Every structure is written in C-alpha cells, then in structure tokens.
Amino acid sequence: MTNEIETLLNEIRLIYQKLVEVGDRIHADEKVSMGMRAVLEILLKNGPATVPDIARSRSVTRQHIQVLANELLNRDLVELAINPSHKRSSLLTLTSEGEDLIQRMRRREFRLYEETGFGVTTEELISAATTLETIRRALGDIRH
Question: What pTM value is reported for the model?
C-alpha cells in the first residue's frame, strides 16, 4: 500500500502545482496571487474572519496569511472590522471590490471546469473528494 499512497500523494502535489499554474494564467489580468485568491474565497464563503482563524483553516502560519491580508488591504479588496470577541484581533471583511473580484474569478474558473469536464463522472469526482478528505483527516490525526 505504501507505493499506492506515494503515487497518490505525488499526484496531489502535481495537481496543486497545475492548479496554481492554470490559475495564474487565467487570472493574469486580475493581479492577485492564488494565495490572495484563497483568502478572498474564505471570506466569501465564511464571512468575516481573523487572520489566525484563516491561517488555521488553511493549515498555514498566521504570518503567511498576514502578508496576504496586508496586500489585500493595500489593494482595498478587504477591510478591517471591529471584532466583538477579541479586542486585538480585527476581522477581515470583503469590500465590494473584493467580492466582485472573487466572484469574477470563480465564474471564470467554473466556465473552464465545465468546458474541460476532466473526463470523469460526477460520481468519480465525489469519490475522489471523499477519499482526499479521509486522507487529510488521517494526516491531521498524526502527532509526531
């Protein structure tokens, strides 16, 4: 089973790199990185959030998200809001420009995905997503 896991994990890495490459290409006119896009999408889907909350949801460092958030703030794509739960950790929230941008990017991506079709059935996509989620959760349980 070790060889099969290695093959799967290698494919995941390759797919991730390909997603970044395709995203950079189809969104070249937007002038935002794929990391910034991810923050915008989290805010779109989940509403206002703190930098530490976003970092935890992506399993990355708070510092990494802070760099992205600062750039988004500089571009007026997000703004800071008072966090009633925490005096020192403001909430990031989408501006109307930020919401328009992420919606435009998502529409462009969905069109590309629909056109591509990926050569697999809906059931295969659901099965693959379930398998990857199971592996992600198992990796999250490892405490070494």
Answer: 0.85
